[in-house]
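Sorry, I am new here, but would you mind making up a protein's amino acid sequence and the tokens describing how it folds?
***
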Amino acid sequence: MSNRKKNNLPPGPGPWSALTNLLRLRKDSLGFLKDLTNEYGDIVKFRIGPYKVVLLNHPDYIKEVLTVQHANFVKGRPLELAKLLIGEGLLTSEGEFHKRQSRMIQPAFHRKMIQSYAETMTEGAIHGMHSWKAGKELDVLTEMIEMSTIIASKTLFGVNVGPEAKEINEALSTAVSLFDRISVPFSELLLKVPLPSTLRFRAAKERLDATIFRMIQERRKHPRDTVDLLSVLLNAQDGEEGMSDEQVRDEALTLFLTAFDTTSLALTWTWYLLAKNPAAEAELHAELDAVLAGRTPTWKDFDQLPYTRMVLGESLRLLPPIYLIIRQALADFSIGDYVVPAGTIVLMSPYLIHRDTRFHEDPDRFNPRGVFNKIYGQSSKYEYFPFGRGPRSCIGESFAWMEGTLVLATIAQKWRLLLEHDDEIELLLRINLRPKNGMPMRLEPR
């Protein structure tokens, strides 16, 4: 590679803007990134404090990083903080260790296993609705979190956390709030200082560890012939070697955290968008009435509810919980007409790509039927990637589609969820895309 090519860096604001960039990123990361693409194009370099960053904003470039050149990228520094909570789980591990763990966990997400979880998913939704009453006002985000926790604990661990659910949810919420520090330079050093937030995080981690290690130890002492993730993890072998209790804990907590946070957010945003789009809601109800006629859905209904899946898929397009995917380059790499140096943090935003007029017609409109080819078509995989793409895409994607579709169908048969206020919901941009003040809605029976 010639020196001229090596020096062919992407355009972007100068290095003197590093502090301003940090402040803008923390205030409104999506607005800041959108402004960069408007000014500099689809490949933009900039600095955040001491870190070199490049933003990629085209499906072809997303494909290069997530699939074609994936071996040159790791999750990198941004997820070092996550390791403090979830250790070397699938989300944070790299290289051969990640491949080994993925091989051993994959059986938990085979089609028949996913089908076996379906009844637990609908039971979790029914249990979550047991105290709902006509006219009741509730925070739908809290309700979806509680349902997701119940479903995750039963499908992942074969137990009903019952009275512990509230404490576990609080511990998970505290732990997730740690990730708000990811964009702060040297934030890992702050966790060595006994600040109140650090002490809360440590207490939350200890609470989660105690619960999961107890489940692991009880299952090792009293094995059972159950179909759940914990059984798969404890019985997993790669050659002659299985997982230690620490490895089981890391993977179990990673998947539990994912189910708790992303699935609950996906459902919350779906109820919000349905409330804003009554025509789509009416079409959803018509499909549920025709296919289910009031009975509880089963896994066999999954393929019979295409519009229900489209509604969920369109919600994932407009308001993807994972709105920003982050990688770090191990070596210099070519992208478009430019060369990006080793060590650079690479940002890719499903939110921005999903709302780009070049790739989606009338992209700000809620149009479930328009998303069909984005989900199932072969020509536009990188124009729609709420679960990532390539070898490091979400291993639980099939689980999420099944849970989201069945929970949505179970609830929407019985209830309409109406917005309490007509104001736009303010976004809270942490590691995932959240409603800033929850999702207040009012229950109306169908």
Notes: The chain has a mean pLDDT of 86. The radius of gyration is 22 Å. The first strand starts at residue 43 and ends at 48.
